[in-house]
Write a structure and sequence with these properties.
CATH architecture of the largest domain: 2-Layer Sandwich
Number of strands: 19
CATH class of the largest domain: Alpha Beta
Largest sheet: 5 strands, mixed, barrel
Strand order of the largest sheet: 15-16-17-19-18
Distance between the termini: 25 Å
Number of helices: 15
Number of domains: 4
Radius of gyration: 23 Å
Oligomer: single chain
Bound molecules: S-adenosyl-L-homocysteine
Helix content: 25-40%
Length: 447
């Protein structure tokens, strides 16, 4: 999402006459788009800021700005304490950047961290950064209302609001016309998407009857997008189990160009911990959702996010996480040790009481089990022919292309006559736990 936000910021600055440079020493403005999700992310940002400040010694005109969640969380503190930055801009205030740059130029305080009820940047055509010309991100919602107790996002990105489907479709049409072949719809919680004419999701019930009746939900949007661009692969991220509807699963099953892949974070396999995290579903309800996905989309890949060592997590809770993983056998996973975030309910109401060594050990057990499952999943592809969208040269060999299957699994194969952006049928011969290795058998008739 930050990547996509940076594309919006680049577009706003382009209109002001700014240009991108590949060389840091040529820059007279450096903007750091930041993440607050874990303490480590913030530490990384601080290190970067130190590095960029070093450049100021050589170039006195250089301005440094902090964007995103850390800007929102620390606000004026960035100017007061750190003395490392000139501009601080929260996720909803990017349109104010030109004005803030002028303030900074005049050595005045340049901070805007106001969160918005409406801002979706729907009217901004993002400048595609570091693009391969094949895959692009399109933001559909901003903010989050879920209030998971561990999570800082609702505080840094504000309340949830959805973007006008018309502007989403326009952006996607433009991308398709420019040759893009894969679009990922982005939101903190895409399943919660709801357009009823603008405004916050939580105010939906205050809308007129007509607005409520004609509202567009996520499965409607997915269908609109899939139908509008049948030659483009559609992905989305992230799904939240409590908000994912059976309609979304049915829509995925109905359209070939919606990829058979769902990123479905669960965070824990223990009912006690799920409750303490304020995840609004049980382990059993999660299994029901998994069963529904498998029934309707048999070859659907599923991935997860998992947090090890949430406050009070017992050995039994941890075992519940491992057994949940055993049931689902996820294709991939993103796994983290719990990191207490200031201002969250967990930080206010609970003690971060799991020793670092225990968090680390549990995390390692989760990672090890995931590796076994990833390998199990990739092995199912051996001997099969799968459709791969070519994205780039393989890192390991410039003689090989690298792309992904509908299930989001990376596949590599000898380049031969094929080109970036083509859908190719690849016969899989070997696998590692993360990669399929095969040989192209021809251009694909499906996507
Ligand atoms: N709404 C987004 C959230 C992105 S954060 C989504 O559902 O993808 C991505 C992941 O970071 C979360 O799913 C969670 O597993 C992890 N995470 C969030 N807060 C955390 C914390 N305080 N400590 C450790 N991991 C955390």
């Amino acid at each position: 999402m930050n990547f996509s936000d940076s594309e919006i910021v680049a577009s706003i600055l382009n209109q002001e006459g700014y240009e991108l440079t590949e060389k840091l020493e040529n820059a007279n403005l450096v903007l750091v788009n930041t993440c607050s999700i874990r303490e480590k992310a913030e530490q990384t940002v601080r290190k970067r800021l130190e590095l960029f400040n070093g450049l100021k010694r050589k170039n006195k005109d250089l301005k440094i700005g902090v964007l995103g969640c850390m800007a929102e969380r620390l606000k004026h503190k960035f100017l007061e304490e750190e003395k490392m930055v000139d501009i601080v801009v929260g996720p909803d205030a990017y349109k104010d950047l030109p004005n803030l740059l002028r303030e900074a130029e005049a050595e005045r305080e340049a901070v805007n961290v106001i969160l918005s009820k409406e801002e979706t940047y729907g009217d901004i055509a993002p400048v595609r950064l570091a693009t391969n010309g094949v895959s692009a991100f399109v933001t559909i919602t901003r903010g989050c209302d879920n209030m998971c107790t561990f999570c800082v996002v609702p505080f840094t990105r504000g309340r949830e609001r959805s973007r006008d489907p018309k502007s989403i479709l326009e952006e996607i049409t433009q991308l398709a016309q420019n040759g893009y072949k894969e679009i990922t719809l982005l939101g903190q919680n895409v399943d919660s998407y709801l357009w009823y004419g603008g405004g916050l999701k939580k105010d939906f019930l205050k809308a007129s009857t007509l607005q409520q009746k004609t509202a567009v939900n996520f499965s409607n949007l997915l269908e609109l997008v899939a139908k509008a661009q049948p030659g483009v692969r559609i992905r989305f991220s992230t799904s939240n189990p409590q908000d994912m509807s059976i309609d979304v699963i049915h829509t995925m099953a109905k359209y070939d160009n919606i990829c058979n892949y769902i990123h479905l974070p669960v965070q824990s396999g223990s009912n006690d911990i799920l409750k303490k995290m304020n995840r609004q579903h049980s382990r059993e309800e999660y299994f029901e959702l998994i069963n529904n996905i498998r029934k309707n989309i048999p070859d659907c890949a599923i991935s997860h996010d998992m947090i090890a060592g949430f406050p009070s997590e017992s050995e039994k809770d941890h075992q519940d996480t491992l057994s949940l993983m055993e049931y689902v056998k996820y294709d991939f996973g993103f796994m983290f040790a719990y990191s207490e975030r200031p201002g969250t309910m967990a930080a206010k109401k609970t003690v971060d009481d799991i020793p670092e060594s225990t968090k680390k050990r549990r995390l390692q057990e989760i990672i090890d089990l995931q590796r076994v499952h990833s390998e199990y999943r990739t092995q199912q592809f051996i001997g099969k022919t799968v459709c791969v969208l070519i994205e780039k040269s393989s890192k390991r060999s410039s003689e090989f292309w690298s792309g992904r299957t509908s299930q989001n699994t990376v596949a590599v194969f000898p380049k031969e006559k094929y080109k970036v952006g083509e859908f190719v049928d690849v016969k899989i011969e070997e696998v590692t736990s993360a990669t399929l290795i095969g040989i192209a058998v021809g251009l694909s008739s499906s996507i």
